[in-house]
Amino acid sequence: MGGRGEIKAIAPVGGRSLRTAVLALAALPALVLLAFALLLALTGGRRPGALAGLLLLALCAVLLASIPLILHLLHRLSAMERQGAAFYHELTRLAKVASLGEVSSSIAHDLNNPLAIMNEEAGWVMDLLQGAGGDERAAREEIRHSVEQIQIQIRRSREITQRILNWARDTDEPAAAVDLNLLLNKTLYLLESDLQRVQVRVVKRLASVPPVAAGSVAELRQVFLNLMKNALDAMGETGGTLTIATSSSPGEVRASIGDTGSGIPPEALPRLFEPFFTTKEEGKGTGLGLAISSWIVGKLGGRIEVESTPGQGAVFTVVLPARTSEAMEPCNGGSHAGHPTAAG
Amino acid sequence: MRVIRLLLVDDEERFVETLGKRLTARGLYVEGTHSGEAALALLQARPFDVVLLDVRMPGMDGIQALREIKKVQPLVQVILLSGNASINTAVEGMRLGAADYLLKPAEIEEVMAKVEEAFEKKRLEEG
Description:
The complex is a heterodimer.
Chain A: E1 6-9, H1 15-42, H2 50-129, H3 136-169, E2 176-179, H4 180-190, H5 192-197, E3 200-205, E4 212-215, H6 217-235, E5 240-249, E6 252-259, H7 289-299, E7 303-309, E8 313-321
Parallel strand pairs in A: 3-5
Antiparallel strand pairs in A: 1-7, 2-4, 5-6, 6-8, 7-8
Chain B: E1 5-9, H1 13-25, E2 29-33, H2 36-45, E3 50-54, H3 62-72, E4 77-82, H4 87-95, E5 100-103, H5 108-126
């Protein structure tokens, strides 16, 4: 694909272009009729002629006859669109449940560490009380240290449980003002334990004035979580750099997730947003992440752009309509602002 | 019976410190370290009987470390430490030559029992 990456913008729902085609079809006979009438008018109706009359009549008939067909097609189309929307709606719900499962398993994992430490500290206090520590003053000091450590680990556990509470609390409020900088940071925070496990450096290039999109926090977080998880998967064991960037231009806000992973093979690009299409190994991906993401973004009036150079990584950019500056509601999720750390 | 030489490997420093103290109080010789790489270096420097190895660590994880340990010290007995969520990894570790695994948080009696059992196994294998 040469040095430059390939850019592909994706239309999220196919029904819309079909609808336009049907309408154009309907407009065609009307246009021909109009042209014919114009021609007649221009020739001043000198030779109205039987042929012209006949043609006019025929065209009228075709137009009339096609009206029920066109109406029927339009009706079928909106039914299809409704079914499509319902299908994606259900998929989004399922994907959310699935990612909740993933998030909770990662949190359960994280909780295990402080639990294991508290277990040892409490056990050590018990050992000391049963006389393991030698002289009494040293034992008292040891006990104090262990109890302090238990308190530290309790605070740590509380922070971990806060993460799942934040996740569950964000509601589906459809047209909230979403601060993209804040949302990206919070989403990154959810992935903190994954980031620590793999050798990934996080680079943030967030706009100094937070870009604000109109949308639902819960839905957009789903999108960013999908994109970030894909980015991490693409980099795999070898690690790399995860770049998170935001920017605004008049009327539009952009958030992009870039990785330095394997990139997208050119033959996969056209199918990237199809449901059940995945390049991940069996059992690793459902092929729903990008399909759902593009549906959510499309529903909000935006699009997802992909840029990838195979072997060098990929950048997914979510482009959304900017929220016109009204009263700005905070991106919900409580007072806990996550500060993800770069691991590596 | 000679003292069991145990190497404790976990990225949680405080866990290593306190569990180390408790096992020392129970008559073991314990050294602790916080990464798979450091564990390998220590194993090459001096002999150990049993390694208690966390499966989930940044950098070289427990499974990678287990593979390397078995290459340099085939007789040393490795017990994997795992949370519930990584139990599959622990089971995979058994296939790769781990002597046993322990679920964190574990009771000290269970840790002692498994360490002693692993030590016995090592003595039998050494002949």
